[in-house]
């Protein structure tokens, strides 16, 4: 149903949607910002974002149909379309956020989606940086452009966690601190890269869905497990091929001959002497300082974490593999006549186990979860009795989405939610100079439930009515997101 | 080609939305119900065909304005030219610099002529024409980034102020700018005057030759832009505070000149989070405290 528009030699097309008759270059939009040249075809590209299930399922964008035809001019066609809040509350230039309350019939049930953009001064992002490298001590300040924007929080398995933003940085510090914090949150939430420096720690470039760059080096893999776990996973594969294995890890360094897994295989003592604090047999804490070297420690020479071998158990010719938890670093040694380890080339028989460790390490990523709380005034835009909305969400009668993306709603009071920013359509987040972030939030529920919680029934409008008087941008739904009108039909999306 | 403007009430049932091609108006009038009704009908009538009227003279509207008079015929086109003529002797400017404000004024004039109204506004993408009956006032919100709207303050305009036009211009907005201001908002006697002045002041907020500023000839973006091959701003990298200050100072100096010439009443300039106001005195109140928080 698409027809190429009048085209010039250099790919420009001439739009005939209005008498301005713009020439539009490939990839550009006309003076109205409503029509664009998409590969030589004139298409509508309106600013209010609606998710289109057809697009998600492989359909194509609706071309502007010139001179009659089968398109009725409506962009929104029933429940295959979900209206997001992106752009909804900012019907610039008339300043007044007006929530849309849209109804659509889904599988015979009238569903209502209340669409609004919330101003969140109580908001921030939780950043998970997949790296074993030491980014900085817990509680250290995280800075952007020199301003404190958050702190290092506790480490999680294979990852370092940062908490950025929050009301104290946004509005509790200096004006500049608030502005830089707001910028940082906005950039991260909209999927852009931000450079963060940590007091007494590393400089890390964080971008949602991308590997972290720590002190200029891109992190490629997450560790397969802690050093002790790695011993347990690979003990059988090492058995008979090497006498001793040390898996170097900032958290728990594992030693094969002492470890329970080694004992079960009958691996004899090797006389190895580890530095650090022994936890349980074959498991050592604090073999070195945290850092960006082997296994998240500060060492570059793994022998530095060993004391002399005990001559009662050790023997010349004893073989030893030292490897980090990602397989990124490894070295193979043979004890000489004085029981000193001498580095040798890694035998082919052990190369496979190193490759196996690497293979089991998942790609290291940064993940960014936007966290915000929908307060009283936002909820009152949905219902005249705001607490009923909270209860309805808790009872799972109301489905909350952020730009159509699924959210995790915290148990307890209020509606505090988290969303993976990579699942939200691009540039969904905005800001006000308060400073605070503007984030889309949608509440979807049955019309009857909406009435029961004293919703603004007089403002409910059918989905089809959005076709004529609203500017909007139509984007495909995110493939991994459950369709907001049928969330229960989706594969498990989080948690 | 069958083309009719979109004419519809917004969901609140109070505001009228008019859209045709690149023109996008939000209109609101207050007064007796029958007056509002008559005013909206008049606005819709005036709006229909207005774009065609302008497009008939588009080549001339895209040509540099002449300080000594113009060959344009349409009333809106002539108003556009009048609004930019004071700047024509100083450099390149075309009547297109005042198109949004002039359209807003024309629709407002049709409304006011149709019925007695207490207050009315026609908002054309941030360029706003106002009507205030004696004793009436408007509270106006000001934004610092047209692409990411957020209020930085409000100002109250009263009928006695004589301000009937507000316009905002900046490189992040829909129109191209030769300068680097995120936004320049102008208060003036009429919307067309404010529109033209916003363009001029936003162009003056600049750091010529600065390496952090990305500029592209306008024609490479829009082949038929009235700006031809003049370099329009497409990106502003990090700037030193002193540079931000210097650029705002250049814009503020221009605004002072326009105030002295009686062309505008006040200006608010924004760049990289910094704000400078000229002629706004104490009327602007910070908005932060009254924002609705989620």
Q: Would you mind describing this structure in some detail?
A:
The complex is a heterodimer of chains A (495) and B (294). With 495 residues, chain A is α+β, with helices and mostly antiparallel strands. Chain A folds into three domains: 13-93 and 463-489, no CATH class; 119-216 and 365-460, no CATH class; 227-359, no CATH class. Helix content of chain A is 16%, strand content 30%. Chain A has an eleven-stranded antiparallel β-sheet with strand order 16-15-14-13-10-11-12-9-24-28-27. Chain A is elongated, with a radius of gyration of 29 Å. Chain B is of the alpha+beta class and 294 residues long. Chain B has a single domain (6-290), classed as T-fold. Helix content of chain B is 32%, strand content 27%. Chain B is built from eight helices and 14 strands. Chain B has helices at residues 33-47, 50-55, 58-61, 75-88, 99-114, 191-204, 218-221, 241-260, and strands at 6-9, 16-20, 23-30, 119-124, 127-132, 137-143, 151-158, 165-169, 183-188, 213-217, 231-236, 266-271, 274-278, 285-286. In chain B, strands 1-2-3-4-5-8-9-12-13 form a nine-stranded antiparallel β-sheet. In chain B, strands 6-7-14 form a three-stranded antiparallel β-sheet, with no helix packed on it. In chain B, strands 10-11 form a two-stranded antiparallel ribbon. In chain B, helix 6 runs antiparallel to helix 8. The N and C termini of chain B lie far apart (47 Å). The chains are: A alpha+beta (495), B alpha+beta (294). Chains A and B meet through strand 2, strand 8, strand 24 and strand 29 of A and strand 1, strand 2 and helix 2 of B.
